[in-house]
Automatic annotation (TrEMBL):
It holds the Pfam family NTP_transf_5. InterPro entries: NTP_transf_5. This is Nucleotidyltransferase family protein. It comes from the Bacteria. It comes from Desulfomarina profundi.
């Protein structure tokens, strides 16, 4: 099913963009003749899916302006302007929310989104994101949700404040929306991957301060951030190039990463294989050069090499340009490879079968007072999904 296949020209161009911005290449490795055979519509569709439209535009505008149709380049430029404007808007919203939390005595750590983008690219317009992720302590979760309600935010599903707090406490985050702003308020970073949750309290000794948009904000240490990005990539099976780019760029811009600390934290959390896979992909796909200590991590888990063609096929399917979704058994098998603790693996794989998700709430909208019914709907919905996939 997952045989390695030659990449088409559009995929090769995107990979060239990734390796250029990860710091490996200083030129674009395509001949002028290659551009005449590109499917420009497919190229922008792929770049949009992989969230690297700004990287594509900058690369083409810097090296290939004479080979690219002006209308296509102008369209990319306009998309980049829209991404940059939206990112600035989200950044201002984030600063406002963090200020409100701080005034109310809530310690909050922004991660991903604009803070990550500015850290690894130094420019908010170079990465596409569509929500704001904020970490708070579990004890502050209810107060933070209440403050967001006061700020005009509401849940993305039909819940009152008390029910949303209960759902978020049982899970790992709450999603709230105001207009076109999406906030994901987390009390745990990994999506409950491990028996030992990664919370604000466990990260506290290494939390740092950074300057973001002229303001001092709390942030994850670069070591914790690298581990989180690798865990997050594995949760989503590394289905977008942006996830690999973020790991590669962080390694490139932070040569001072404490790899001994990273290995120690991974051993304690049970995330060593996930980090090893993230490092492997940043090297093989983004082309970033790994320091010796990072290579030691990947060498310790050389069996993960067999996942590379699977992930490459998911990134650039041979049958069509639509991303391949894992079925349940592929999902279980993938996580068996990347999780070190078998009990954590079993718990994580069974949870989707038993616990209602946001998708269940969006599938059928019921009043909040009937929320317990979703526990009955969950297996029914999964069975319907399975039968549909099998029939197709």
């Amino acid at each position: 099913m997952y045989s390695q296949h030659p990449l088409d020209r559009e995929s090769e161009l995107l990979l060239n963009c990734v390796t250029f911005h990860a710091g490996k290449n200083d030129t674009l490795n395509l001949t002028p003749e290659s551009y005449s055979q590109l499917n420009w519509s497919k190229l922008v569709e792929l770049a949009t899916f992989h969230k690297i439209v700004p990287l594509l535009y900058i690369t083409l505008n810097s090296f290939s302006r004479d080979c690219v149709p002006k209308s296509f380049l102008d369209s990319l430029k306009e998309q980049c302007h829209q991404i940059g404007a939206y990112n600035l808007f989200l950044s201002g919203t984030l600063i406002s929310i963090l200020s409100t939390f701080n005034d109310e005595g809530i310690r909050a750590i922004p991660f991903k989104g604009p803070v990550l983008t500015e850290m690894i690219y130094g420019n908010l317009s170079l990465r596409s994101f569509n929500d704001l992720d904020i970490l708070v302590s579990r004890n502050s979760l209810a107060k933070a949700i209440d403050l967001l309600f006061q700020q005009g935010f509401s849940p993305d599903i039909d819940l009152n404040a008390k029910q949303l707090i209960k759902l978020a406490d049982k899970g790992h985050h709450a999603t709230m929306i105001r207009g076109n702003v999406i906030i994901e308020l987390h009390w745990e970073l990994t999506g409950r991957y491990f028996s030992r949750p990664i919370t604000l309290e466990t990260l506290e000794p290494r939390i740092t301060q950074t300057t973001f948009s002229g303001c001092k904000v709390h942030s994850l240490s670069p070591e914790d951030l690298l581990i989180y990005l690798c865990i997050h990539g594995c949760r989503h099976h590394w289905h977008q190039l942006d996830a690999i780019c973020c790991v590669a760029k962080l390694i490139h811009v932070r040569p001072d990463l404490d790899w001994k600390l990273i290995m120690h934290l991974c051993d304690r959390q049970g995330s060593s294989r996930m980090v090893a896979l993230g490092l492997l992909l940043s090297n093989k796909i983004a082309g970033v050069k790994l320091p010796e200590d990072a290579l030691e991590i990947t060498n310790n888990y050389s069996q993960l090499q067999k996942l590379y063609p699977i992930i490459l096929e998911r990134l650039f399917p041979s049958r069509s340009h639509e991303n391949i979704k894992f079925g349940f058994f592929q999902y279980v098998g993938f996580h068996h490879e990347v999780m070190s603790n078998h009990l954590d693996w079993l718990r994580y794989c069974l949870r989707p079968l038993l616990n209602p998700t946001h998708s269940d709430w969006l599938w059928i909208r019921l009043p909040a007072s009937l929320s317990l019914i979703y526990y009955l709907f969950r297996p029914v919905r999964l069975l319907i999904k399975y039968l549909r996939r099998k029939s197709s």
